From TrEMBL, chains A, B, C, D, E, F:
Mn(2+) binds at H99, H101, E106, H145. May play a role in plant defense. Probably has no oxalate oxidase activity even if the active site is conserved. This is Germin-like protein. GO terms for molecular function: manganese ion binding. InterPro entries: Cupin_1, Germin, Germin_Mn-BS, RmlC-like_jellyroll, RmlC_Cupin_sf. It comes from the Eukaryota. Keywords: Apoplast, Disulfide bond, Glycoprotein, Manganese, Metal-binding, Secreted, Signal. Residues 55-198 form the Cupin type-1 domain. It holds the Pfam family Cupin_1. Residues 1-25 form the signal peptide.
Amino acid sequence: MASLKDFQLMFFLAVFATVAWLATAGDPDILTDFVVPPNSLNSTDGNLFTFTGMRGIFENLPSTFKVTKAAMAEFPVLNGQSVSMAVLQFPTEGLNPPHTHPRSAELLFLIEGCLEVGFVDTTNKLFVQNLQVGDIFVFPKGLVHYQYNADTKIPAIAISAFGSANAGTVSVPLTVFGTGISDGILAKAFKTDVATVQKIKAGLVPKP
Amino acid sequence: MASLKDFQLMFFLAVFATVAWLATAGDPDILTDFVVPPNSLNSTDGNLFTFTGMRGIFENLPSTFKVTKAAMAEFPVLNGQSVSMAVLQFPTEGLNPPHTHPRSAELLFLIEGCLEVGFVDTTNKLFVQNLQVGDIFVFPKGLVHYQYNADTKIPAIAISAFGSANAGTVSVPLTVFGTGISDGILAKAFKTDVATVQKIKAGLVPKP
Amino acid sequence: MASLKDFQLMFFLAVFATVAWLATAGDPDILTDFVVPPNSLNSTDGNLFTFTGMRGIFENLPSTFKVTKAAMAEFPVLNGQSVSMAVLQFPTEGLNPPHTHPRSAELLFLIEGCLEVGFVDTTNKLFVQNLQVGDIFVFPKGLVHYQYNADTKIPAIAISAFGSANAGTVSVPLTVFGTGISDGILAKAFKTDVATVQKIKAGLVPKP
Amino acid sequence: MASLKDFQLMFFLAVFATVAWLATAGDPDILTDFVVPPNSLNSTDGNLFTFTGMRGIFENLPSTFKVTKAAMAEFPVLNGQSVSMAVLQFPTEGLNPPHTHPRSAELLFLIEGCLEVGFVDTTNKLFVQNLQVGDIFVFPKGLVHYQYNADTKIPAIAISAFGSANAGTVSVPLTVFGTGISDGILAKAFKTDVATVQKIKAGLVPKP
Amino acid sequence: MASLKDFQLMFFLAVFATVAWLATAGDPDILTDFVVPPNSLNSTDGNLFTFTGMRGIFENLPSTFKVTKAAMAEFPVLNGQSVSMAVLQFPTEGLNPPHTHPRSAELLFLIEGCLEVGFVDTTNKLFVQNLQVGDIFVFPKGLVHYQYNADTKIPAIAISAFGSANAGTVSVPLTVFGTGISDGILAKAFKTDVATVQKIKAGLVPKP
Amino acid sequence: MASLKDFQLMFFLAVFATVAWLATAGDPDILTDFVVPPNSLNSTDGNLFTFTGMRGIFENLPSTFKVTKAAMAEFPVLNGQSVSMAVLQFPTEGLNPPHTHPRSAELLFLIEGCLEVGFVDTTNKLFVQNLQVGDIFVFPKGLVHYQYNADTKIPAIAISAFGSANAGTVSVPLTVFGTGISDGILAKAFKTDVATVQKIKAGLVPKP
C-alpha cells in the first residue's frame, strides 16, 4: 500500500515530469559535479550528501521481508550519480518474491545469516546459489530474481548496490496478479483455469 | 611499476578480449560506420545489410501466437546500430503472455486486426488499450506487458520496433513457473499453496 | 517552407529549450518508467501510450513519395524510450531523395511492392540492393541513403524503425541547394559552374 | 493551460538550470585508464600518448584545401577517450565542401586568416558566419556544414576538436555524385535533367 | 572501393580487437544478459555470479586502513553490469587519504563506528560530514575525497557501492609525491621549496 | 540447457569478438540539433554558434600560466555537443600544476614552444614526455596530469580539446591544501608533520 509519503512523492514526481519532462535527464554522467535538489538550496553543505534514513535499521527485525532504499526518491542528490543502495531484511523463512529492476543490475552483499538466491536468464535457465555471510552475488540487469532465507532460526540481512540512481522494481506476483489483468488472459498465459487465477488473485489482494 | 598481479590482470583481459563475447559489449554508437560480421568479409555488399528471413511471412497464419525476430542473432550487421524489429502474428484469441524486454522499449504497429495491449508500471498501475489497425502503442522499457487478440474471427498482425539490436525477452510464466524455482518459494511468493503451484507448473511444461 | 504546424512545433520546442534546456537530456535510459508530457496529466491512461495518427494510412496512395512519422514530435511519450517509427509510401517511380538521419540508424521493412535502396559509407563506397516484399534493410547511422520504387505499375510501402525517439532528417538536395548557400560556393564544391547551380536551385524551389 | 503552480515550477526549473546546469548528456567511459594498441606493448611510455604527425604542418601551405587528422586511425591510443583533433588549411579561396560528421559535433578554432562558415539544421535553416582570427564556431552533430576562405590574399588555418575518437566524414558532393548512384535517381532527387547530373559527375571524377 | 589504406586500417583494427583490452570498451548496457569470462565456460552456474572473497572479512581488524574490493578484476562477471562494491576498514585514527575514482561516484554506508568524510568540488569548496552508524554519504564522481576515523577507541567499517564495474582509484599523495614527478615541478606546484617536497617524498616511499 | 543453435551463436560471437571491428565507446546524442540557451532566443543566427572570447588572445603573453576556456559556461550552445576547447599559455618556466578533469580526456596540441607533460595512471605509473611544436598529447580521462614549460627563453602555447562540454578541473594543490581539510588529516595522508602541512598551506593561500 502506498503511504502518505509515497503519495507526496508521487505528486512531486508527477509535477516534476509534467512541466519539464525532467525524467529525460537519464542516468549518464552529469555535466556538473552534482545536482542540487530544489528544496536544499539554502543548505548546500555536507548534510545534502548524507542520507540518515537507515539509522537504527539493524536494531529492529521486521516480521516479514522488508526492503529499505537509499535511491533518488529518498536521497535526491543521487540524481546523476548513477548509484544507489538498499538494505534487505529477511526474518526466518522470509522471501523477497520474484522481481526485476528495469534500470540496473543488483549486487547483493550478505552481512548476516544465510540466503538462497536465484535468477533466470533470457534463455530460461535458472541460476541458484546458497550464500553465506560475506558472499556477494550479482543479479544481471533486467532479469527476474528472488532471495529466500530458508533458515528457521536465524534472520538474514543484505546490503545491495545498484548502478542507477533509480533502479526501479517490478514485483512479478503483484504486477501480474494484482493489477487487474483479466482472469481470462492470465488463465491463458499460465495455461491454467480461471478458478486458479482467481484463487491466486484473492491471496495477493490485501484484506480490508 | 606494474606488479605481477597487474600483469596477470593484463593477461587475463587480453585473453578475455580474444575469447569472450565482446562484440556484445554495449549498445552505444559504434566508432565505425558498421561492424562487418567475420564470415561476411568476402561479400561486403548490399546483401550484408539485407535480412530476407521475413519473406513470405504474411502468407501463412500460425495456429498459435508467433513472434519472428530480426535482431542481432538473426541479422548480425545490426550490431552497433541500436535498432531491431519483429513480426507478431496472433490467430484468433491468440495471446503473447506477460513478458519484459530487459534492454529496450517496444513500439508496436498494428497492421491487421484488433489487439488488446497492456502493461504495468513500477507503481503497479495497469495500462490497457484496445488497438485498431494503424494504431501504434509503446511499451516502456523493462516493464511487464502482454498483447491479446480477443477477436474470434479475425487474426491480428503487428510489426514491432526496438531501440536495441538485442532487446531480449523474459517470459513471465516460463521464467517463473517453468525453470525449476522450488514449489515452496513460489507458493510463498504468490501467497497460495504448493498444489496450485504444481498445477500451474504442470500446465506450462510441454508434454512429451 | 515551414508550415503553420512547423511553426507551432518550433515555438513549442523553443519554449521547451528556454525553460529547462531539457532537450539536452539525450537519448539514454530515463530514470522513470516513462515521461508524461505536460498536457496529458488528466488522462494518464492507455491513450497516452497510443498513437492514432497512422489510422487509415494504407487506404490512400499519395501521388508523390510521402513519409509519415511517429516520433517524439507527433507522439510525445516516446521521449526517453529511444525508439520511433515511420511509414514510407512510394507511388510508382517514387523517390525518397538522398538524406541522412543524424541521430539513428534506420531499419526498413518492405511490406508492399519492390524497392531499390542504397547508402554510401564514409569511404565513399555505394551499397545498393533491390528489395522484395518482406525484406528488411539497415541504413547505418549518419550515412547518406535513398530509396526508389523503380516499378512503373506497383506502389511500394515500407515501415521503418529508428533507435532514437527523434532521429531527425537532413535532405541532401534541399539542405545543399534549397537553403541559401551561395552559388559560388556550391559551384566550387560540386566542381561545376554557377549556371548549373542556379538551374538546380530553381528546380528545387517550389513555384508560387 | 499552464497553472500558476506550473509557472512557479517553470521558474524554479529555469533557476535550477542556471544554478546547476541540469544534468545533460555525458560522455561514456572506458573501464581502464586507457587502451594500449597491440603493437605498442613493448613501449608503454610517454611516446604511446604522443602524436607527432602534425610536426611542421604550419610550415607548408597546401595549394588546395587540406585536412590533417589526429583521430583513432592515426593515433590509436585515442580509442575510448572520446576526443580527436584536425588541422584545416585553406589557401586563398579554398573550400571545404559541404559534409557531415556522423559521430560528433565539430568545434573549429580559427588561428589564421578569415573564414566563412555555415551549416544547415534539420528544419533546413542555414546559419552562416564570417569568422576572424581567434573565433570558435560549433557545427552541431550530424548536420551538413562547409567552410570557405573568401579572401584572395591571406590563407586561413583552423584547428578543430571533435567529441569522438572517430567522428567520420561524409562529403556531400563525392557521396552523392561520385559513388555510382544512377543518373536517373539523381536527376529526380535534384529535380533536374540527366545531362546536368552527368555534367556534375564528370567534374567530380578525377581525370586519369 | 576500399583502398589499400582501408584494408590496412581494417587489418589493424582486426588485430586490435583480437589483442587489446577491448573488454574495457565501456560501461554501458551490454547486449547479452551477462558476459561469461573465458575460463568459466565449463561452469556457467550460480558460482559464476558469486564472489566469496569477502568471507570472514569482518572477523579481522586490520592495523591500518584497508580497502577490499569486489570489482571487475576480482569478480569478472561484473563486466557490463555497471556496479561494484568495496569494504573499507578503519582502525582507530585510520585514514583513507585524499583520492578520486575516475569512473564512478561512491556511495558509502557506515555500518560500524563513526567516520569523518569530506570531498572538494570543482569550485574548491570543501564538504565535510561526521557520519554515525547507518548513515550513507555520496562522493560525487571524479572529485577528491577522504575518510577518517577520528575515534581513538572504536574502529569503523563501511560498505561502498560504485556505479561502475571498475571505478578505479587515484591516490593523491602517492600519485603526486610517489611517482617521480620532479622535485622542482612539485615545489612550484605547491608553492613551496624543494626541501619540503623531498621531505614529503621520503615519508611516502616505503622503507626497504 | 543451451541448444545447438545457442552454441552456434556462442561460437559465432566468440569469432566475432576476435575478428570484427570491435566497436567501442560512443558519444551520446541530444534529441534536437542543438539547444538554444534561454537568453539567446532573439538571435538564433550564426552568432549563437560563435565564441569570440578568444579574439586577440595570442597577442598578449601572461606573466604566469593562464588557461582560457571555451566550454559550456562561456559558450552555452555547447550544451549537448560533447566537446569544448581551451587555450593554455605558458610563460617561460610556467607551470600548470597537477590536476584532473573529472568528465573528459584532454587532447593537447602544442602550437608554440616546448612543453614537458606528464600524467599518472591508476597503477601509479608516471608517463612523461617532452613535446615540440606540432605534437599532440592525450591525457586519459580522470587521471592526474601537469604541463611545464622548462624553457627559460621561449613561451609555450597549446590548444586543448575535451570530449565533454564541461570537463571540469580539480587542481590538486588547491583542492588538497587550499580548502580547509584539517592539518592533522593532511599530515597523516602525506606522512609528514603538521608544520610541513601548515607551511604548504601558507604558500598556497593568496596574501591579502
